Amino acid sequence: MLSYRHSYHAGNFADVLKHIVQIAIIEYLKKKDKPFTVHDTHGGAGSYAIANEHMQKTGEYVDGIGRLFGQRFGDPLLDRYLTLVAGLNPVGHLREYPGSPLISATLLREQDRLQCTELHSTDFPLLQQRFAGDKRVRVEKMDAWQGMRAMLPPTHRRGLVLIDPSYELEADYTDVLEGVREGLRRFATATYAVWYPVLDRQRTEGFVRRFVKAGFPDLLRVECCARADGSGRGMTGSGMLVINPPYTLAQQLSQTLPVLRQQLCDVGGHTLVKPLTAEH
Ligand code: SAM
Questions:
Q1: What spacing in Å lies between the alpha carbon of 6 and ligand 1's midpoint?
Q2: What is the pLDDT at residue 279?
Q3: Pocket lining: 166 vs ligand 1, CB cutoff 6 Å
Q4: Strands (E), 19-95
Q5: Is residue 280 over pLDDT 60?
Q6: Complex ipTM value
Q7: How far apart are CA 246 and CA 250, in angstroms?
Q8: pLDDT tens profile 129-161
Q9: So what's the architecture of 6-276 in CATH?
Q10: Which residues are catalytically annotated?
Q11: Domain spans of the chain?
C-alpha cells in the first residue's frame, strides 16, 4: 500500500531541479524532426493545484517554484522552465504546478509520444483524466519496473526514460539501478534520468557509487542542495543521475545551476554538475 502523495511536495526545490533537467533533455530531442518517446515510470497525478490542502499544509512549493515564479534570470534553460510554468498560469498568479507528465505533454510535438506508469489508487485516475483524449499520451496503472519491461522499447529509437521513485520503500534504492540496467537492455539509445533525494550524505554517496561501479559509459551527476547536509531526518537536497546525457547537458547545467543556487540555496547549500567515470 503506497502512502506517498506528491501533492505534498510538488513545486519544491527538488521538483525545480528535476523538471529543469527534464526540459533540457526534451528540448535537445526536439532539435531533430524525428519522433521520440518519453517514458515516465512514476507519473504522479500529472498536475497540482496550489490551493490544494496538501500543498498548503507543507508549503514546500514556497521555497521552490515560489522563489522563481514571475521572474526571468537571463539563463535560457531556467527561463524556458519558468515560461512553461507561466504558460499554465495565464492569470499571472501561481495556481497550478505541472508534474513531470504535464511538462512532457506540453513540450511534445504531434509526432512524439508520452507513456506513464503510476500505481497510487488516487493519483492514477487523476493522471488518466488529465490526459483523456490526448492520443499522444498513454497512461497505465502499473508497477514502474513491470512497466519498463512491458512498454520498452517504444516504437521510436530516440527518447527519455524519467525515473522518479518516492523512495518510500527501501527496495526503491536497489530497484532503480536494476531498472536502468533493464531499460538499457531494451532501449539502449534513450537517455535515462534518475532522481534521488539527499537525506543522509553517506547513503547518497553509496547510491551514486553503485551507479559508477555499474560502468555506464556516459554518466552525469547533477545536484542541488538547498541546505547543508543534515542528520538524515529531512531532505536537504536532491540530485539527478543522467545516463547517456545529451552532449550539451553538462555545459548547459553548469550555467543554470549557479543561478539556481543563488535563488534556492541557503548558507551551506551547494550545487554540482559532474560527469562521472569509473575512477570517481
Ligand atoms: N514524477 C512526478 C513529477 O515529477 O511530477 C512525481 C512522482 S512522485 C515522486 C512518485 C510517484 O510514484 C508517486 O505518485 C507514487 O504513487 C508512485 N509510485 C511509487 N512506487 C511506484 C511503483 N512501484 N510503480 C509505479 N508508481 C509508483
A1: 8
A2: 57
A3: yes
A4: 36-40, 47-49
A5: no
A6: 0.99
A7: 8
A8: 999 999 999 999 999 999 999 999 999 999 999
A9: 3-Layer(aba) Sandwich (3.40)
A10: 164
A11: 6-276
